[in-house]
Design a protein that fits this description.
It is a single chain. By secondary structure, this protein is an alpha/beta fold. About 35% of the residues lie in helices and about 20% in strands. The protein has a 7-stranded parallel sheet with strand order 3-2-1-6-4-7-5, with helices on both faces. Helix 2 packs parallel to helix 3 and helix 2 runs parallel beside helix 6. The two termini are about 25 Å apart. About 35% of the residues are buried. The model has no long low-confidence stretch (mean pLDDT about 95).
């Protein structure tokens, strides 16, 4: 085996990325404190051609030096928008026929591996605060909740890890 050089990876230019067909997933980050987590989610969104990211509540917005440390330029490729109130955003997305799911541990949540999505309808996934998670108000407005099964002692993952796990799983369900 030989490790590939960057020139061999056939990466899209910023313009090619913006013009490409996107995966019909919208990411909502609500009250995310860590600038590194925000940047990491942007980078993951770029990798899987995610349609858009909404930044809500206290979540910082680009341009930001600390976000860019982990985003590595993905804030220039992935479309994003700041909306102060996540509950207003949820209702707006639902009025646009977008299915809205919180990534949260709640009664009645569907485990990620059991969640069925064909891509016939756009899907918005909400990730909440690193300590408090997705707010109860937001959860109650969502069409449902998806839970990442966890078998260890902690029963929580870092937001950027959660986003990577969920986005990869949904990308596979949509593309393959």
């Amino acid at each position: 085996m030989r490790k590939l050089e960057n020139a061999e990876l056939e990466r899209l230019s910023v313009d090619e990325f913006k013009q490409s067909d996107k995966t019909p997933i919208i990411i909502v980050l609500d009250d995310i404190r860590s600038l590194n987590n925000i940047g990491s989610v942007f980078r993951t969104a770029d990798a899987f051609l995610i349609e858009k990211i909404y930044l809500c509540g206290i979540t910082a917005t680009p341009p930001n030096k600390e976000i860019n440390k982990t985003a590595l330029g993905a804030t220039d490729t992935v479309e994003w928008e700041y909306v102060a109130d996540v509950t207003q955003l949820i209702m707006q997305l639902q009025s646009e026929n977008v299915q809205v799911m919180a990534i949260e541990q709640v009664e009645g949540a569907v485990f990620l591996q059991d969640f069925s999505w064909s891509g016939n309808k756009k899907l918005a996934i909400i990730f909440g605060n690193e300590v408090k998670g997705v707010s109860e108000n937001a959860v109650n407005l969502c069409d449902g909740c998806i839970e990442i099964p966890q078998l260890g002692t902690k029963h929580s993952l870092n937001i950027s890890v959660s986003a990577g796990v969920v986005i990869w799983d949904l990308f596979k369900k949509f593309r393959y």
